[in-house]
Automatic annotation (TrEMBL):
It comes from Streptomyces halstedii. This is Membrane protein insertase YidC. One of its GO terms (molecular function) is membrane insertase activity. Keywords: Cell membrane, Chaperone, Membrane, Protein transport, Transmembrane, Transmembrane helix, Transport. InterPro entries: YidC/ALB3/OXA1/COX18, YidC/Oxa/ALB_C, YidC_ALB_C. It is a multi-pass membrane protein. Interacts with the Sec translocase complex via SecD. Specifically interacts with transmembrane segments of nascent integral membrane proteins during membrane integration. Residues 331-341, 393-407 have a biased composition (Low complexity). The keyword Transmembrane helix applies. Residues 38-255 form the Membrane insertase YidC/Oxa/ALB C-terminal domain. It comes from the Bacteria. Belongs to the OXA1/ALB3/YidC family. Type 1 subfamily. Required for the insertion and/or proper folding and/or complex formation of integral membrane proteins into the membrane. Involved in integration of membrane proteins that insert both dependently and independently of the Sec translocase complex, as well as at least some lipoproteins. Aids folding of multispanning membrane proteins.
Length: 422
């Protein structure tokens, strides 16, 4: 670790200078040799660094959003090459290159902090060894060696020996208890931050290499920090615990105010937004208006949660506008009510026997309804003289046989035709 820290010695002087400036301020309040003065100086260093890294964090969020936009294309690639993992990976890399998306952008804040982290480690190691470094001269060095945070010296480590800890004016038990608690808190905050990102702010309907990467980091990073933490000085543990808490709070803000489309966080956010619009009749706040504006701009490309939100506005008689506001609209209300109507049921297909029976009944009904046939025939048969019956019967038989001959149909009862052929 000391060898790696020495590689970043070029920023040791700026880091030590910033710590000394904060120490002057907090020393005036708490005292120069107190652990509060030196500990809060390290915390203030973290806050200053994280404020400077906000542009990188914004870039990270944009890259994450680009990854979400590519989810449908990634899913299509997965379905197309599901039996060929190598080709699937090649197509994914090609897609990243074409769209200019970097799946490793989530590591940018950590990579950017690394030089400051190792520089601070180098400064604290010099303090533990009794050496001046950067702008920390001998009086400041003596003051830092006397500073204790809850009984643990600023430069003490979990793995330090009894003699080394005693030289710093502390007991080994106090040092190991304090460092163990800080290591557990550091690892737990890292795990909670990643887990919060995976469970609330990621669209879980599509599995991609990005998703697998985030899931792996959720377990790998806490283990790395737990193993490496036993070799960190107390001051470095204060630094890393502070930056983890900052990241956790920053992530919670993003999840609540700018969630990933299709995620659980977006569902909760849109539900809160719909309740607010229901209570006040308008969209309050610039951030919320920007959210409504983005949903309107998507048009037919909205996800299910966004369509549900637009339908909810329609039920209230409101329509979302392009500028992010809402206005009363009877058309939106009618569309929302029409969208909730039950779907028309398709008639069940009848069996062949039922269709034949229906055709036969229809034919019989038509014959009985033909005007001037059935009644006249019955009267003719009743009024006709007895000697005419054989003659009329013969004629009817002859006409029947001629019709059969013309049609070419076989004798006997005929099967009714299919309704489509009739």
């Amino acid at each position: 670790m000391d060898t790696i820290a020495s590689l970043f010695s070029f920023i040791t002087w700026p880091v030590s200078w910033v710590i000394v400036q904060f120490h002057k301020f907090y020393g005036w309040i708490f005292g120069d040799d107190t652990g509060w003065a030196w500990g809060l100086s390290i915390v203030s260093l973290v806050v200053l660094i994280r404020i400077c890294l906000i542009p990188l964090f914004v870039k990270q969020i944009k890259s994450t959003r680009n990854m979400q936009v590519l989810q449908p294309k990634m899913k299509a690639i997965q379905e197309r090459y599901k039996s060929d993992k190598q080709r699937q990976s090649e197509e994914m890399m090609k897609l990243y290159k074409e769209t200019g998306t970097n799946p490793l952008s989530s590591c940018l804040p950590i990579l950017a902090q690394s030089p400051f982290f190792f520089a601070l480690y180098h400064v604290l190691s010099a303090i533990a060894s009794g050496k001046t470094i950067g702008v920390i001269d001998q009086p400041l060095l003596d003051s830092a060696r006397q500073a204790h945070i809850f009984g643990a010296p600023l430069a003490a480590k979990f793995m330090d020996s009894q003699d080394k800890v005693a030289a710093l004016g502390a007991s080994l038990t106090d040092v190991r208890v304090i460092t163990a608690i800080m290591i557990v808190m550091m690892s737990a905050s890292q795990f909670f931050t990643q887990r919060q990102l995976m469970t609330k702010n990621v669209d879980l309907t599509v599995k991609t290499p990005y998703m697998q990467q985030q899931k792996m980091l959720m377990y790998v990073f806490p283990l790395i920090f737990a193993v490496m933490g036993i070799n960190f000085p107390v001051g470095v543990l204060v630094y890393w615990l502070t930056t983890n808490v900052w990241t956790m709070g920053q992530q919670m803000y993003v999840i609540n105010q700018n969630p990933t489309p299709g995620s659980k966080a977006q569902e909760q956010y849109l539900n809160r937004l719909l309740k607010s619009v229901t209570a006040h009749g308008e969209v309050r706040g610039r951030t919320r208006r920007n959210t409504v504006k983005r949903v309107v701009a998507k048009g037919p490309d909205r996800n299910d949660l966004e369509r549900k939100f637009i339908t909810g506005l329609g039920k209230l008689g409101l329509a979302a506008q392009e500028d992010g506001t809402v206005e009363k609209s009877e058309t939106a209300l009618a569309e929302a009510e029409g969208g909730t109507a039950p779907k028309r049921q398709q008639p069940k297909r009848q069996t062949k026997a039922k269709r034949q029976t229906a055709v036969a009944q229809t034919g019989a009904a038509k014959e009985s309804e033909e005007p001037g046939t059935g009644s006249k025939t019955s009267l003719t048969k009743q009024d006709a003289p007895q000697d005419d019956k054989p003659k009329s019967a013969g004629k009817s038989a002859a006409s029947g046989s001629s019709r059969q001959a013309k049609s070419g149909q076989r004798k006997g009862p005929q099967r009714p035709k299919h309704p489509s052929k009739k």
